[in-house]
Amino acid sequence: MEKFKSGDIVKLKSGGPNMTVSNYVGIAAGRESKTVQCKWFAGAKSESSNFYEDMLVPVEEEKK
Predict the structure, then answer these.
(1) 3-class secondary-structure state, position 2
(2) Which of 9, 3, 12, 8 has the alpha carbon at shortest distance from 50?
(3) pLDDT digits (tens, 9 = 90+) for 20-37
(4) What is the rounded distance in angstroms from the CA atom of residue 47 to the CA atom of residue 20?
(5) pLDDT of residue 25
(6) Residue 3 CB contacts under 8 Å (≥ 6 apart), including other chains
C-alpha cells in the first residue's frame, strides 16, 4: 500500500521545502521502501527529484 497519493504535500524528515507528490516510480533494489517523485519550486525554477517513501513526512495543512 502506498503511503502518499499524487498531490499530497510532503517534506523530508530532515527538513527542506514543501514538495508535491507527483507519482510513485518504483521500488529500489534491496529496499522495502517505494520511490516517490516529488516536485517543488526554488524561487521561480521548478525542481523535481525522487525520494524513498520512508524519508518523507506529510505536511499538515495550515488551519484557517
Answers:
(1) coil
(2) 12
(3) 999 998 876 677 778 999
(4) 11
(5) 87
(6) 34, 53, 56
